[in-house]
């Protein structure tokens, strides 16, 4: 298989024109995806909502969203196209949400996560989220509890230093190389000029723990639709 040149992943605000690609990832990732008009309503009428997409060329490969509620950022949805998982897409999206939260004056970020979703929990813990409570029988599909996770103060020194270091690490990640079929090749396959060669990450490595991959549940939101978190 002949590899294609490395590609750049670009983060951008979600637009109505992005919704067909977003819905593809919805259907791939969730057993009860939002109806087709839900995101359109969020983008056009909900001033609290902020949604982002990750693009490769003209393809949507991931998305994430949050609500900014006074001084709190509540992360509401998070999904990456299956073939692009474990390539740092989710980590880039999470970092972008936290940066946006800080720039808009949020003092903390919060979310709910399934106890069984270990990859997502590892990612959130890496970015400073800590378990502060439990919502019993929170997820409607299987009545699993939800862990409530919250960051320290986004304005504090601890989070500032953490985000500076993580932002640098994300910037120095190897580019993603594509196979002849246009899909990402597994593992770190390309390195930047001057970087040492990296060994493939093993199944239990932090690299493989960086992408949430299990389906989320739903939570109630102040409209006729439901919100979702990992």
What report would you give on this structure?
The chain is an alpha+beta fold and 230 residues long. The protein has one domain (10-229): 3-Layer(aba) Sandwich (Aminopeptidase). It is 25% helix and 25% strand. It contains 5 helices and 9 strands. It has helices at 19-29, 38-45, 89-103, 118-126, 157-171; strands at residues 10-13, 49-56, 59-69, 72-80, 108-113, 130-135, 146-150, 217-220, 226-229. Strands 1-2-3-4-5-7-6 form a 7-stranded mixed β-sheet. The chain has a two-stranded antiparallel ribbon with strand order 8-9. β2 (49-56) and β3 form a beta hairpin. The longest helix is centred in the middle third of the chain and has 15 residues, at 89-103. It is globular and about 45 Å long. The termini are far apart.
Please describe the structure with a list of short key phrases separated by commas or semicolons.
two-stranded antiparallel sheet; disordered C terminus; 7-stranded mixed β-sheet; alpha+beta; Aminopeptidase
Supply Rg: 17 Å
CATH architecture assignment name: 3-Layer(aba) Sandwich
Distance between the termini: 35 Å
- Beta content: 15-25%
Quick synopsis:
The protein has 5 helices and 9 strands.
What's the topology here?
Layout: E1 10-13, H1 19-29, H2 38-45, E2 49-56, E3 59-69, E4 72-80, H3 89-103, E5 108-113, H4 118-126, E6 130-135, E7 146-150, H5 157-171, E8 217-220, E9 226-229
């Amino acid at each position: 298989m002949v590899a294609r040149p490395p590609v750049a992943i670009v983060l951008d605000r979600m637009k109505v024109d992005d919704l067909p690609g977003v819905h593809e990832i919805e259907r791939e990732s969730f057993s009860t995806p939002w109806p087709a008009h839900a995101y359109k309503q969020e983008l056009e009428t909900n001033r609290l909502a902020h949604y982002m997409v990750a693009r490769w060329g003209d393809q949507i490969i991931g998305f994430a969203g949050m609500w900014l509620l006074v001084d709190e950022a509540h992360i509401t949805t998070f999904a990456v196209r299956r073939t692009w998982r474990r390539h740092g897409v989710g980590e880039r999206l999470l970092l972008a949400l936290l940066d946006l939260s800080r720039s808009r004056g949020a003092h903390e970020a919060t979310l709910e996560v399934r106890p069984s979703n270990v990859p997502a929990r590892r990612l959130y813990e890496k970015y400073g989220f800590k378990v502060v409570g439990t919502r019993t029988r929170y997820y409607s599909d299987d009545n699993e509890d939800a862990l409530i996770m919250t960051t320290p103060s986004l304005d504090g020194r601890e989070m500032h230093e953490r985000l500076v270091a993580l932002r640098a690490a994300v910037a120095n990640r190897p580019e993603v190389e594509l196979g002849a079929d246009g899909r990402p090749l597994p593992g770190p396959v390309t390195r930047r000029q001057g970087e040492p060669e990296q060994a493939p990450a093993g199944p239990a490595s932090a690299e493989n723990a960086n992408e949430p991959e299990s389906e989320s549940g739903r939570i109630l939101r102040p409209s006729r639709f439901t919100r979702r978190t990992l």
